[in-house]
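Design request, tokens follow.
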């Protein structure tokens, strides 16, 4: 079994403008972000990035700037240190045939577009009430349930959530209600199953904030 993230590749929708610039149709990004209902999945977002196709470790191409452009206006989009950006869902921008222009530090031919479903940045912290993490896990389940209604062969159910780190915490550094707790770590990710989140209560403390929280799903090789 292997852990997967929802990362649909959208390389065909990237149009190189010149060697270091890519142009995306906003409507291709809108088709993703519109799936996240503000009422049932307020904590989730789609983060867009460019995978370096020369890398075997999933490294991202570096984006110098990301700009949402219409015929009348330009909006600068924030880009994370890692090299991902987000857009908001607005049908008017789709109808206006808006574009997203990405200025890269390297040749665009080495970069393939990808999408990642993750929790919003404010959920990356060192202290959590488990009720908050349980609600986050439930929102992922809602998303996969809704997508699975017509993509059942692509969308397995979630098993919980996983907290991703650049360097995983050492044994004894993670505590539950002030006491060290042994949690499964896989490839610099702490995995919290839905059943564990349901059974436990109180406060989870981490020595450092995760860089992101994603769904924990499994798929056969």
């Amino acid at each position: 079994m292997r852990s997967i993230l929802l990362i649909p590749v959208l390389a065909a929708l990237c149009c190189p403008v010149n060697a270091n610039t890519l142009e995306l149709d906003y409507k291709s990004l809108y088709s993703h972000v519109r799936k996240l209902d503000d009422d049932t999945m307020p904590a989730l977002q789609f983060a867009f990035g460019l995978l370096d196709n020369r890398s075997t470790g999933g490294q991202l191409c570096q984006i110098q700037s990301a700009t949402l452009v219409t015929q009348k206006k330009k909006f600068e989009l924030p880009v994370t240190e890692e090299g991902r950006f987000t857009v908001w869902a607005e049908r008017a921008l789709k109808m206006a045939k808006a574009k997203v222009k990405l200025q890269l530090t390297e040749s665009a031919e080495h970069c393939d577009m990808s999408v990642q479903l993750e929790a919003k940045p404010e959920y990356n912290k060192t202290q959590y009430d488990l009720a908050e993490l349980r609600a986050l896990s439930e929102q992922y389940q809602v998303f996969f349930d809704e997508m699975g209604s017509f993509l059942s062969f692509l969308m397995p159910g979630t098993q919980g959530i996983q907290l991703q780190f650049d360097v995983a915490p050492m044994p004894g550094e993670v505590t539950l209600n002030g006491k060290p707790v042994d949690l499964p770590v896989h490839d610099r990710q702490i995995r919290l199953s839905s059943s564990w989140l349901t059974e436990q209560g109180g406060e989870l403390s981490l020595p450092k904030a995760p860089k992101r929280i994603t769904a924990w799903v499994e798929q056969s090789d």
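Comment from the thread starter after seeing the answer: thanks! The chain has two domains: 2-119, 121-219.
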